[in-house]
Amino acid sequence: MSKSNKYGYVGVDIPSQNFGSNKGVFDPAEINELVADNKWTQYGQLEHIETQTISSALANFTTLNENIYNVHLFTLTDMVVTTQTEFGIRVSDDNGTTYETTTYQFANQRGFAGGSGFAERKSTSQTSIRLGGDITTASNSVLNGYVYVYNAGDSTKYTFTTSHCTFTYGSEYGMEFGSGVYGTASTINALQIGQGILSAFSSGTISLYGIRYS
After folding, report:
1. Considering only Cβ atoms within 10 Å of each terminal Cβ, which end of the chain, N or C, has fewer?
2. Domains in the chain, start-ordered, CATH in brackets?
3. CA proximity to 75, closest of 92, 93, 50
4. Torsions phi, psi of 29, nearest 5?
5. What are the residues whose beta carbons fall under 8 Å from the beta carbon of 178, sequence distance 6 or more?
6. Among candidate residues 50, 196, 49, the one with its CA nearest the CA of residue 134
7. Which residues contact 28 (CB under 8 A, 6 or more apart)?
């Protein structure tokens, strides 16, 4: 550390500089040191885990650090499908060797700028959690959005999702938002995102983050 009288404290009874206990008067250099040591109190800080650039593939994320993060965030950028379809997410409790195909439920709302197609999209028996749908293969019909995943690392709880997606349906703007659940209590250590009943995307970029101390 930079000083013997650490982080705004003087004397012999210097408190432990741990997350949640770093009280005192700090200069910028001290703050930078505490941030680097992961001791500066920042509830909800976003930490990058992995980014995948997809090309004719599913997006399989097998490093979740689920023992560290209770909440995960996916960002989806310029996702392109190979056929007009929806896309969804599946979970795995064996590090991605297999992905579960049962006990999913979701409830979404979808709509289009022209006023048509406003409807619920819901299921208690689909083989994945639907995140968005009816995107076309038109050149401008990319999808962007985000997905939050909750409780993946807690073996006593169900794993929940919330999502919001924005896209074009040919030349018409569309959106879809909603939530879902994997209705089996299990430690989830891998997640898979794909189109339709989970087949390959044509292209796109997906980033995964953990939200610390959430």
Report:
1. N
2. 46-211 (2.60.120)
3. 50
4. -65, -40
5. 106, 107, 108, 109, 121, 130, 162, 163
6. 196
7. none
DSSP E strand boundaries for the chain? 46-57, 59-61, 71-80, 85-92, 104-112, 119-123, 129-135, 143-150, 159-169, 172-182, 190-195, 201-211
Tell which residue, 89, 70, 91, has the closest CA to residue 211.
Answer: 70
3-state secondary structure of 47: strand
How far CA 9 is from CA of 3, 26, 56, 208, in Å, comes to 10, 9, 56, 38
Read off the tokens for 204: 């796109």
Assigned token pair, 108: 């979404």
159-203 pLDDT, tens digit each: 999 999 998 877 888 999 999 999 999 999 999 998 776 777 888
Mean pLDDT across 4-13: 54
Q: Please give the helix or strand (H or E) that residue 80 lies within, else none.
A: strand 71-80
